[in-house]
Amino acid sequence: MNKYLPSESYDSTPLYSFCHKFTNSQGILRKVEIEFCPSQKKNENWTLILVKDVTDKELLKELSEKIEEEDKLLKKLQEIDKMKTEFFANISHELRTPINVILSATQLLTMDLHGQLSMHHDKKEIYYNSIKQNSFRLIKIINNLIDITKLEAGYYKLSCSNYNIVSVVENITLSIASYVEDKSIDLIFDTDIEEKIISCDPEKIERIVLNLISNALKFTNPGGCIMVTLKDLGDKVKLYVKDTGVGIPEDKLELIFERFSQVDRTLERNKDGSGIGLSLVKSLVELHGGKIDVKSTFGQGCEFIITLPAILTSEKINTYENNLGDNLVERINIEFSDIYK
């Protein structure tokens, strides 16, 4: 072009441009970019039409983008694989630890039974309680693994009916009040409404609340406080579980609900748990059509906020108190089994 038209005689900024695809005489698809540029020759205004073959350029761009996407995907898969490896290593440790405790206690009790050593009654009771607590701990880990598998396979179902969510949460909270107070930690329940009927699965709500309080209890020191609050927002209900514990670093907040991640091993060093509890809580909340958020200031505590839709089924209103059953204590013991007295 420069041979016939000096570059200074036309404006390189096109008035109009578009792309066009066509098949050439060899049957190959090509892409051209057509530009209309203003030009001037011998004091006359012209429109210069530039046709550029951009096929190779576009292919190179597409290839570059594809490589970049695949590179991101590869890095993501590597991160997930690493988290899975750490997760299963942690699960192996969590399974092995209670088994070792149970085995050791059983061996000592067997030696006492056969007269190989003399053990005081109080000492025996400590070992029996240790066996029971660690058995509950194994049940909790296995239950969580089974539920996670069901959730991933889409087989986990809710049994929703109409319940007073205030009574459900209040009864669960009060049922563990003495347990929390034994740790010299205050447990406070508060609500701005006495009755709010919504469709929910009370057993799953129980599991959500117990898990969040258990988690708060692990990281709250004696003299601290755990607050459970319900607020009615008309078409939805908000449940807050707040503690005065160690909190979570801000840059780790997005990771706590990840199934194969741990927030910080330094925080978990003296705290037992498989690390899948919050992931399970998030899934249970979402099955109810709700969402869970978290706020935290490191060193000042943590607050989990659950939002549930206030919808009803066509069924009658049920009373949660009649559904507690005799095994509530056992369910509490299972959920709190990784917190040692």
Radius of gyration: 32 Å
CATH superfamily heading of the largest domain: Histidine kinase-like ATPase, C-terminal domain
Please state the oligomeric state of the protein chains shown.
single chain
Helical content stands at 40-55%
Count of spatially separate domains = 3
Q: What structural category do the secondary elements indicate?
A: alpha+beta
Q: Quote the beta fraction.
A: 15-25%
For the terminal residues, how far apart are their CA atoms? 86 Å
* Average pLDDT over all residues: 83
CATH fold name of the largest domain? Heat Shock Protein 90
Q: Describe the strand arrangement of the main beta sheet, using strand numbers.
A: 5-7-8-10-9
Biggest β-sheet: count, sense, barrel?
Answer: 5 strands, mixed
Pfam families: HATPase_c, HisKA
Catalytic activity: ATP + protein L-histidine = ADP + protein N-phospho-L-histidine
Domain Histidine kinase: 90-312
EC number: 2.7.13.3
Supply the key terms.
341 residues, alpha+beta, Complement Module, domain 1, Helix Hairpins, Heat Shock Protein 90, five-stranded mixed beta sheet, 8 helices, 11 strands, elongated, disordered N terminus, phosphorelay sensor kinase activity, kinase, histidine kinase, phosphoprotein, HATPase_dom
Structure explained in plain terms:
Keywords: ATP-binding, Kinase, Nucleotide-binding, Phosphoprotein, Transferase, Two-component regulatory system. This is histidine kinase. It comes from bioreactor metagenome. With 341 residues, the chain is α+β, with helices and mostly antiparallel strands. It folds into three domains: 7-53, Complement Module, domain 1 (Ribbon), CATH 2.10.70; 74-153, Signal transduction histidine kinase, dimerisation/phosphotransfer (DHp) domain (Helix Hairpins), CATH 1.10.287.130; 161-335, Heat Shock Protein 90 (2-Layer Sandwich), CATH 3.30.565.10. The chain is built from eight helices and eleven strands. It has helices at 55-113, 121-153, 165-175, 177-181, 202-218, 265-268, 277-287, 328-335, and strands spanning 16-23, 29-41, 44-53, 161-164, 186-191, 197-200, 225-232, 236-243, 291-297, 301-309, 317-318. The strands form three sheets. A five-stranded mixed beta sheet has the order 5-7-8-10-9. A three-stranded antiparallel beta sheet has the order 1-2-3, with helices on one face. Strand 7 and strand 8 (236-243) form a beta hairpin. The N and C termini lie far apart (86 Å).
